[in-house]
């Protein structure tokens, strides 16, 4: 038992350090976070304590109020920290990929499955809702990226639904903070076995493309690329 105590203490210290770091980062984007948390805690505790005096059980209601005040403060802190984090990530390259990595169990994400010279990018997520292609970048340029990727998906996994989303704040786009919620709202149409099979087929495609021999250096003049291995 003595060996577990230092590990537990280290874990608690790490947790407290993480909370302190999160608070510090949140306060930069939300300077009023301290006042808000204090107000939530005091008001919640005060209400339950007052009810306790009215009904003659101040001790019991005071303890309950303290616990609920702590819970309410934690919930408010979590939501405001999340909002601040999304605010800082909004518009940053790769922000959508970071959200997809934390979408939850049952999803397999692959960042940057398609990209152009302007660094507009398409990420892919596979789950029971099917395949979701998430684009970030210029909304006009990503249309061609999405169209090409959807065409490729139709050839490889024609029986799997493919959804596409563009991250942004414009019309028809999905805000970064709503990306996870939007994806989780898609109807679940695949079984676990079908999701695994889809991932295997997509993974095989990736291996095929990565192992395909490519010519070194510039192509000889007048040489044409093959159009798809037609046999005569």
- Main beta sheet: 4 strands, mixed
Number of strands: 4
Average predicted local confidence, pLDDT: 78
Number of helical segments? 7
* Percentage of residues in strands: 5-15%
The radius of gyration is: 26 Å
Q: Give the class from helix and strand content and strand pairing.
A: alpha+beta
Q: Tell me, briefly, the overall form.
A: elongated
Helix and strand pattern? HHHHEEEHEHH
Description:
This protein is an alpha+beta fold. 56% of the residues lie in helices and 12% in strands. It has helices at residues 4-29, 33-55, 58-89, 95-101, 142-156, 179-184, 192-211; strands spanning 108-115, 121-127, 130-136, 162-167. It has a four-stranded mixed beta sheet, with helices on both faces. A hairpin with a 5-residue loop joins strand 1 and strand 2. Mean pLDDT is 78; it is low at 207-232.
Structure at a glance:
This is DUF4191 domain-containing protein. This protein has 232 residues and is α+β, with helices and mostly antiparallel strands. Helix content is 56%, strand content 12%.
Element layout with pairings:
Layout (H helix, E strand, L loop, with lengths): L3 H26 L3 H23 L2 H32 L5 H7 L6 E8 L5 E7 L2 E7 L5 H15 L5 E6 L11 H6 L7 H20 L21
Supply database-style keywords.
about 230 residues; alpha+beta; 2 domains; four-stranded mixed beta sheet; disordered C terminus
């Amino acid at each position: 038992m003595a060996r577990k105590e230092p590990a537990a203490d280290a874990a608690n210290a790490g947790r407290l350090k993480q909370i302190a770091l999160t608070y510090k980062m949140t306060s930069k984007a939300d300077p009023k976070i301290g006042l808000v948390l204090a107000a939530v805690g005091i008001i919640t505790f005060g209400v339950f304590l007052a009810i306790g005096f009215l009904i003659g059980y101040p001790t019991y209601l005071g303890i309950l109020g303290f616990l609920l005040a702590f819970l309410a403060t934690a919930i408010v802190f979590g939501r405001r920290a999340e909002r601040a984090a999304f605010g800082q990530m909004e518009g940053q390259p790769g922000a959508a990929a970071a959200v997809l990595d934390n979408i939850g169990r049952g999803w397999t994400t692959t960042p940057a499955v398609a990209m152009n010279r302007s660094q507009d990018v398409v990420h892919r997520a596979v789950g029971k809702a099917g395949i979701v292609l998430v684009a970030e970048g210029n909304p006009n340029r990503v249309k061609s990226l999405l169209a090409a990727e959807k065409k490729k998906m139709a050839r490889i996994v024609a029986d799997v639904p493919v959804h596409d989303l563009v991250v942004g704040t414009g019309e028809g786009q999905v805000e970064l903070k709503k990306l996870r919620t939007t994806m989780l709202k898609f109807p679940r149409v695949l079984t676990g076995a079908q999701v695994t099979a889809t991932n295997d087929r997509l993974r095989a495609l990736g291996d095929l493309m990565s192992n395909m021999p490519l010519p070194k250096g510039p192509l000889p003049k007048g040489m044409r690329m093959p159009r798809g291995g037609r046999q005569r």
